[in-house]
User: Fold these one by one.
Assistant:
Number 1:
Amino acid sequence: QVRFVESGGGWVQPGGSLRLSCLMSGIEFSLYQVAWYRQAPGYERELVASAFPNDHTNYADFAKGRFTISRIGARNTVYLQLNRLNAADAAVYYCNTNPPWMTAGDEYWGPGTQVTVSS
């Protein structure tokens, strides 16, 4: 059974940092491009960063230079280091494959982890 469980979110002041983690079980982790997405209230979910099985990475423009994605195959885990956070980064952050995992014709999403940025 596929299960993605995100953790590590919380409240941080502008300029602060967080490290998000995601355990991705039920998939052949080493075969897939994995990614972090985020969704803020009133906005569509957007791709933040992705990591290929060969560790090549891609970032959305807003993430370049501030966020770092990494993956540990032995742990089926993907991380997202968030630095220099600002109010625009506040959102629920989700991990998934890229493109998102499909189950019975629908995209599967875990619960996500909330990131709040405020002073």
Number 2:
Amino acid sequence: QVQLVESGGGLVQAGGSLRLSCEASGSILSINNMGWYRQAPGKQRELVATISSGSSTNYADSVKGRFAIARDNAKNTAYLQMNGLKPEDTGVYYCNAIIMWRVGAWNTYWGQGTQVTVSS
């Protein structure tokens, strides 16, 4: 069984910063891509950033230059450093990872989400 646990969300004023963490635990043989998604009230879940096992990164246009994704493979952990936060960044942030849980078997896993609220 594999779990993803996010932490680091909270309430911050516009222009502030937060750092999210996502730790994967359980039956993990290998982790491919890891990513962060977010869902604002009344909107669909959208991609924020992804990072490959080789640390290649991809960002939504709306966060480029403000957010940075990183990972620590030894700790099975991904991070999202969010700077210059805007009220439109408010939402529930979800961690996602593609994990090999037994030889040759890959699944996509999601965390439970962490709330980020940016006040104006």
